[in-house]
Design a protein that fits this description.
The structure holds 2 protein chains of 2 kinds. By secondary structure, chain A is an alpha/beta fold. Chain A contains 11 helices and 10 strands. Chain B is built from 11 helices and 2 strands; from the N terminus they run αααααββαααααα. The two termini of chain B are 40 Å apart. The chains are: A alpha/beta, B mainly alpha.
Chain lengths: 288, 271
């Protein structure tokens, strides 16, 4: 696997040199591989958003470097600008960035900034609309006439239309109802499956992350506390609780079941897996 | 950058000036500023300078913070000083080159003006450093309440001012968020001709407008839900009351003003 983004000894301080200096990131080393879905979790203020804002150069590292495709993104202006298109960043509540007269024009804003031809722009807009489930007749409407969920999908399409190598979502499902959440998570999964590009998802929700990613990073105190597969991380439930984080409800239930003397694996983090485990348990009993 | 806005900044402390009645503070600041322009010689100006130094000393606001408020007017200071030195003629000539004369009167006027502007800025920023925006507008509302007779809605104006001040930091945060989102979509805000740059602001201002209107509606809703119907019959939880402290401040200030008048009469005018 080759690396898309490499972060080396990255530190970031807010209000550097003043008495109000805050260390947002401290000596971060991280390699993100081509084609993986990476989840980043951490409590509020642990540095998640600061970290992802370094991936496309919105923030400049106080110390250390960020390499995209092996190139330092702050090498020159051109590289910095290209990093914006290579790494698409979709912020929290992206629907508040909509501004154009029509949905089509808004989705086309990113590709237009890339100075692509009109035909290419049109193709990309249509592709992004399809990925996000934005229907063709919606494209001519004003983005301000849409519902909240539709606006969110249009805004995500606006980032997808740049067809970045890496797509970063900051709390993509924030403020949505359970059905909307599931729909959005599935949308991201489908997008990843069909394009094969790298996806990074920042979230508070362990359930969402567990449904999405293969690899998980836990941030705590401006640093990376854990880095591993979902199973690795969730098996360290006690440490997570200490950091003010939580494991999925179903995992907690299974930890409790284990305490009561049943032999269940510690890595149950989704309802589907729970069903399998319980089934095999009851079948085992029936056999006795 | 935009987060450096210091307008209406409040410096929390528990000094006499912080505790004083905002109405009295507004009134005294107004009176001292008027007397700043009544001063005719350096002695009377020294009286004003003295009470300014006194006020700064008891305010509990660090000198560094006070000096920061002078920084924005530095250019104006240099400019007025230069104009006064070169264009005011009279008295002994100190220096002469070609048609430019530097005279005693010019130098005096320049120094006088600089001190006057510095005192003016320090006093007015001291007012905002020691008074919260809410107190300030409430004080203003009460002081201007006689205007209600003229059917000027003083309460509405004061409420608008409070809300405007309250939303400055919120809007700054919002602008930064939207700018980042559009930059992430490749918006170029830093380069290009003036027209291009103006055009580049559209993706920032449209969402800002939309969210400001949304916020305004939400706020109006929230205020209505809490039974806000305007100023009439509205009482306050924190009643403003004049205390001995306020009268002491008034006394000091009036003594200084009287001193200015006396010194003006008995000593020769410089300006």
């Amino acid at each position: 696997m080759s690396a898309v983004i490499e972060v080396k000894n990255l530190s970031h301080y807010y209000q550097k040199g003043t008495p109000l200096q805050v260390t947002a990131l401290k000596d971060i080393n991280l390699t993100i591989n081509q084609g993986e879905i990476l989840g980043i979790i951490g409590h509020t203020g642990s540095g998640k958003s600061t970290l992802i804002s370094h991936f496309n150069g919105l923030l400049k590292p106080s110390e250390g470097t960020v390499l995209v495709d092996g190139e330092d993104i702050h090498k020159d202006k051109e590289t910095l600008r290209n990093s914006r298109f290579k790494v698409g960043l979709c912020f929290q509540y992206p629907e508040y960035q909509l501004f154009e007269e029509t949905v089509y024009k808004d989705i086309a804003f990113g590709p237009k900034n890339m100075k692509l031809s009109d035909d290419e722009i049109k193709e990309r807009v249509l592709r992004a609309a399809e990925h996000t489930g934005v229907s063709i007749d919606m494209l001519d409407k004003s983005p301000f006439d849409l519902s909240g969920g539709e606006k969110r999908r249009v805004a995500i399409a606006g980032v997808m239309a740049m067809e970045p190598e890496v797509l970063v979502f900051d709390e993509p499902a924030a403020g949505l109802d359970p059905a909307g959440r599931k729909k959005l998570i599935d949308l991201i999964k489908d997008y990843h499956r069909s394009t094969g590009c790298t996806v990074i998802v920042v979230s508070h929700s362990m359930e969402d992350i567990a449904r999405l990613s293969d690899r998980l990073i836990v941030m705590n105190n401006a640093g990376i506390a854990m880095d591993g597969t979902i199973q690795d991380v969730f098996s360290r439930a006690d440490e997570l609780t200490e950091m003010g984080l939580d494991v999925p409800e179903i995992t907690k239930i299974f930890a409790e079941i284990k305490k009561r003397g049943f032999d269940v694996p510690p890595d149950v983090y989704s309802v589907d897996r729970a069903v399998d485990v319980i089934r095999s348990l009851t079948e085992g009993r029936a056999g006795l | 950058m935009i987060s450096d806005i210091t307008f209406g900044q409040y410096y929390p402390s528990k000094s006499v000036l912080h505790k004083a009645d905002p109405r009295m503070k507004l009134l005294l600041t107004f009176v001292t500023i008027i007397f700043l322009f009544v001063c005719k010689n350096f002695l009377s100006l020294a009286v004003m300078a003295f009470i300014t130094v006194l006020a700064v000393a008891v305010s509990g606001v660090p000198l560094k913070t006070i000096l920061k408020s002078i920084r924005p007017v530095l250019i104006i200071l240099v400019f007025t000083a230069a104009l006064n030195i070169f264009y005011t003629k009279g008295g002994e000539v100190y220096y002469e080159i070609w048609k430019i004369q530097i005279t005693e009167k010019g130098v005096n006027t320049a120094i006088f003006t600089i001190i006057r502007i510095v005192i003016l800025v320090v006093l007015s920023s001291l007012l905002t450093y020691t008074t919260t925006p809410t107190d300030l507008t409430t004080g203003l509302e009460r002081l201007l309440s006689p205007l209600n007779v003229l059917h000027i809605k003083v309460h509405t104006l004061a409420m608008m001012m409070t809300l405007a001040l309250r939303f400055i930091p919120t809007l700054v945060e919002e602008i930064e968020r939207i700018m980042n989102a559009q930059k992430a979509r490749g918006a170029d805000l830093e380069t290009g001709s003036l027209v291009q740059r103006a055009k580049a602001l559209i993706p920032i201002f449209v969402p800002l407008m939309v969210s400001s209107f949304r916020r305004a509606y939400e706020l109006a809703f929230a205020m209505t839900c809490r039974c806000y119907t305007g100023g009439e019959g509205r009482t306050r939880m924190k009643q403003m009351k004049l205390s001995v402290r306020d009268f002491v401040l008034l006394f000091i200030c009036l003594t200084a003003c009287a001193g200015v008048i006396v010194l003006n009469i008995f000593f020769e005018a410089v300006i």
